[in-house]
Specification:
The chain is mainly beta and 956 residues long. It has 11 helices and 60 strands. It starts with a helix and ends in a 21-residue tail after the last strand.
Length: 956
């Protein structure tokens, strides 16, 4: 019995092995010679001809950018401006060696050596023989047939010389002299592909929204007639269509056609994918099989009307993406690609432009599966490839990327880097014949009915959109430092959304291109103002614009800023999805209580929450969200509303205070003692001093300013030198004081725009400041300022919008809560990329608790609309950082300035060109406000609820 069982197991094993071998004989086999990504590399021999670690053989990790391995010299593409045309990096080369063996089973197979990307000119030898012509062009997959050069029974020697700069001048012009970091080396994987003698080399799919399916199947080694078949499978694996064709012995391509009944269409909102299993049979036997994912979708440019996907007009909510990671440059991995796509989807974007070169294949696979419209771009940064060089690179680019449904346009170069002789080359390799566009930065270069002109301002955009062409800027709102990206985007996007001829647009850019400099102690270098252009930092640290974009681009569009007095629990909503009904989404409300000053935690406590019925609102239609709130909803501090997409990802969370500020200050602001004690008053020639509950404040009788403070701990607090009017004129004329039943009043009188200043100290130690000013005209900011030493500040906690700072033209992306930020000196777009920035303008403040080395102090206001300016900072770098700041460094403001962008017709100094919300503050009439100060930590009253942290997707 035992022998029978052993025989049976051996027989089954042989059958399985035979089956596996038979299957592998009919499929492509792959053997990596390098690693697969920046986390999984292989060690090769290496020799660098210039710069660091040059002039001797050593080893290097492949794939990699050799600068990140300590070799050669760094250069940014625009170094030619510094060094001239013959700058010193031109002759840097890297020589690679790698021994390898191929499996014995590959004998008789067709073997190719494949490079996914090498920068830039690549000469390849196998066993001392040239594999083929030197490849010129960094970002493209290329391969050599090395079948006749291999030694099947012993080790093979691979020798590669990579020249950082190309011998072809147009390749340098298009790729190497660009506005981005320039690297050298084999930066994407290298591998072998083995095929049987007859095989399918590649396919090209054209699958339309109506189910029409066509596929070009390219054959190699065909020596006898055969049958080609494509079985189309849906996501469940069910065969939903079959296309068949025959191939003669001489055929190199066979076209298959069929039609699938009512396919699930591919869009950015519905990324439905199908698989085509393709087989080649000869004499009835399976000779080769392969598989390709694709999607059914139709792209149309309707001249003068818009861009249509599957018959529906769509607008691109897009951004430009460099392939980038700070430690490894352009050598990436799947998790980086996935993370970048998720970041864009989190910002409610639906599109990405691949600037300025085609990406790793995996990035496109993720765009296919998660849903992003893609502009796949041929390199060409203001200078174009020659026709001879470009023809080969277009072919390589399209053949690699052609079957990705996410790609809706081919982009022929950037900002003048377009060789128009290449326009018709894309269609030679693309059976679906996608539209070709030109990404340009000058008027008059529209192509295929689409104007993509870069960095127009709001008002010139209006004019373009009223013309006859579709307008889709492939770069706009340049995001250097804290300017651009979401700055002005609210106005721009409403303009585009409501314009028939808009195709949307693409913000510049996703990532700050900061490289870890292995020659400079591993600092992260953004090359001055050239590369900090991202909405996120080098390691994807999120700036304030990230969250503002998320709100502006939210397809669940809610414009309600505060709850009206007549609010009955119904919120107007516009559905800005192109293909999704809001009844496919999920909604949840929460009623919350905010934490108090002095408590250990920030945030809120959710008291009640409920999922609500999703409204039936068709794509691009408007409707209402009936929250069906409980009757006691006004007894809570705030109402939160969360929207989730059909995949249960959070779209956005809105917040509204349900009560006025004075109610939110209940239990915090205590002006009366049960047994009040008189305020102590002392006076000298120059100073008036008040004291209550161990808090002392002093006023200068010659200036009217608060000049001295001691907290209830007995320690000095260096707050003072105010109030000073930040806009307008005020001349001090005198100081008076008097007793009232509940405290001591101090009044300062002025001539000019400051009409009244009234202080009052209560027996509880609280100090109020009521003031009124009157202005007429345009002003960058309005309100009053004080000073406090920045180096004494530890952290701040506040109830208001946050946790990010705002600008007049970027108020989105912040919500009401009790927030807390630790002090940092972050300048947006520069190391150490600590966000949120501590310093800046913060909106809708109810109370603010400052934590300092001298102790704490609290500022509160019962009036709405208070901005707090926190210390000294800048939004945009320059000879003189701007926008300019108010006097002082701790300001309480009623209006704050807009900020500009790096580019667009001097917008940096004229932000009003970015649209209505970027204009100066138009002020007319008087403004009144009351502030309350407590120097120390006040006692709070009221029952406190246990603190809970809301889960990210707590609905599910």
């Amino acid at each position: 019995m035992r022998r029978k069982l052993l025989f049976l197991l051996t027989y089954l094993s042989l059958l399985c092995t035979s089956g596996l071998r038979a299957q592998s004989d009919t499929r492509k086999q792959v053997q990596y010679l390098s690693g697969t990504d920046n986390n999984h590399t292989a060690t090769w021999d290496f020799y660098c001809t210039g710069g660091r670690k040059s002039g001797y053989w050593t080893t290097i990790q492949v794939p990699s950018c050799w600068e990140q391995q300590g070799f050669g010299s760094y250069n940014y593409g625009r170094d030619y401006k510094t060094y001239g045309k013959n700058f010193r990096f031109a002759d840097e080369k890297g020589m690679y060696k790698r021994q390898f063996q191929v499996p014995a089973s590959w004998k008789g197979k067709q073997v190719y050596l494949v490079f996914e990307g090498a920068m830039t000119d690549t000469e390849v030898k196998v066993n001392g023989q040239l594999a083929g012509p030197i490849h010129q062009g960094a970002f493209y997959r290329f391969k050599y047939d090395i079948t006749d050069k291999l030694q099947a029974d012993k080790a093979n020697l691979l020798e590669i010389t990579v020249s950082k700069m190309s011998a072809e001048a147009s390749v340098n012009n298009a790729e190497r002299l660009a506005d981005y970091w320039i690297f050298g080396g084999i930066f994407r994987p290298v591998y072998l592909e083995a095929y049987p003698k007859q095989f399918i080399a590649r396919t090209a799919v054209a699958a339309k929204a109506d189910g029409t399916f066509a596929m070009n199947v390219f054959l190699k080694g065909q020596t006898q007639a055969g049958e080609v078949q494509a079985d189309i499978l849906d996501a469940t694996g069910k065969v939903v269509g079959t296309a068949k064709g025959t191939a003669s012995a001489q055929d190199t391509v066979v076209t298959l056609r069929t039609k699938v009944n009512k396919p699930l269409q591919w869009t950015s909102e519905t990324p439905n994918l199908y698989r085509a299993n393709v087989t080649l049979k000869t004499n009835g036997n399976l000779a080769f099989q392969t598989s390709e994912k694709f999607g059914f979708r139709t792209i149309e440019i309707r001249r003068g009307k818009g861009i249509y996907v599957n018959g529906t007009q769509v607008k691109m909510k897009g951004i430009n993406r460099h392939s980038w990671w700070p430690e490894t440059g352009r050598t990436l991995n799947d998790s980086i690609h996935l993370g970048d796509v998720k970041l864009m989807k989190e910002m409610n974007m639906n599109a990405v432009r691949l600037s300025h070169y085609p990406p790793d294949a995996k990035f496109l696979e993720i765009c296919d599966s998660l849903g992003l419209y893609v502009l796949d771009e041929l390199a060409g940064w203001q200078k174009a490839y020659s026709t001879k060089a470009g023809e080969k690179l277009v072919k390589e680019m399209v053949e690699k990327d052609v079957n990705h449904p996410s790609i809706i346009f081919w982009s022929n170069g950037n900002e003048g880097g377009t060789n128009k002789e290449l326009d018709d080359d894309f269609g030679k390799y693309d059976l679906s014949n996608r539209p070709v566009i030109h990404a340009h930065h000058r008027p008059g270069n529209a192509f295929n009915g689409i104007d993509t002109n870069h960095y127009e301002d709001y008002y010139s955009t209006q004019k373009i959109l009223s013309d006859s062409l579709i307008y889709m800027p492939t770069e706009f709102l340049h995001a250097q430092d804290d300017g651009g990206a979401a700055v002005g985007l609210g106005d721009f996007w409403e303009l585009h959304w409501k314009s028939q001829r808009s195709g949307g647009g693409f913000i510049w850019a996703l990532v700050d291109e900061g490289i870890v400099r292995t020659d400079l102690n591993n600092i992260i270098d953004v090359n001055g103002v050239n590369a900090p252009d991202g909405v996120v930092g080098p390691h994807r640290e999120k700036e304030g614009s990230f969250y503002a974009i998320r709100e502006i681009f939210s397809p669940v569009h809610i414009t309600l800023k505060e709850l009206p007095s007549s609010f009955k629990g119904v919120v107007p909503v516009e559905n800005r999805y192109h293909f999704t009904n809001l009844n496919q989404c999920y909604f949840q409300w929460e009623l919350v209580k905010y934490r108090k000053p002095g408590e250990a935690f920030s945030g809120y406590t959710t008291m009640k929450k409920s999922r609500m019925a999703s409204p039936n609102v068709a794509p691009l239609a408007s409707g209402k969200l009936d929250l069906k709130l409980p009757k006691d909803w006004k007894t809570y501090d705030a109402l939160l509303l969360s929207a989730y997409d059909p995949a249960k990802n959070l779209v956005y969370k809105w917040s509204w205070k349900t009560v006025a500020n004075d109610k939110l200050l209940d239990g915090i602001l205590t002006l009366q003692d049960k047994q009040p004690q008189p305020v102590e008053v002392t006076e000298s020639d120059t100073t008036l001093t008040l004291k209550a509950s161990d808090i002392t404040v002093a006023f200068n009788k010659r200036s009217g300013k608060l000049t001295g403070v001691k907290g209830n701990s007995g320690d000095k607090l260096s707050f003072g030198n105010g109030p000073v009017l930040v806009s307008g004129n005020a001349t001090f004329t005198g100081l008076t004081h008097r007793k009232e039943n509940d405290g001591e009043v101090v009044e300062a009188s002025y001539t000019g725009d400051l009409k009244s200043v009234r202080w009052k100290m209560y027996s509880t130690g609280w100090l109020s400041l009521s003031y009124e000013y009157a202005l007429s005209g345009d002003f960058p900011f309005t309100g009053v300022s004080f000073t406090y030493p920045e180096n004494f500040v530890l952290s701040a906690k506040w109830l208001g919008k946050g946790p990010y700072r705002v600008w007049k033209n970027r108020l989105q992306g912040v919500t009401d809560n009790v927030w807390e930020n630790a002090y940092n000196n972050t300048q947006t777009g520069a190391a150490p990329w600590i966000y949120p920035e501590f310093k800046g303008y913060f909106a809708d403040i109810t109370w603010l608790e400052m934590n300092t080395v001298e102790g704490k102090f609290l500022v509160a206001s019962p009036d709405k609309g208070l901005y707090v300016r926190m210390l000294d900072f800048y939004g945009l770098s320059g000879v003189k950082p701007h926008p300019a700041l108010p006097i002082g460094n701790l300001s309480f403001l009623d209006a704050i300035p807009p900020i500009g962008t790096k580019l667009a017709l001097n917008i940096d100094s004229n932000p009003q060109k970015l649209g209505p919300n970027s204009e100066p503050n138009h002020v007319s009439g008087s403004t009144k406000r009351t502030l309350y100060f407590f120097f120390g930590l006040p006692k709070t009253s009221g029952e406190q609820q246990p603190y809970t942290v809301p889960a990210k997707n707590d609905l599910f």
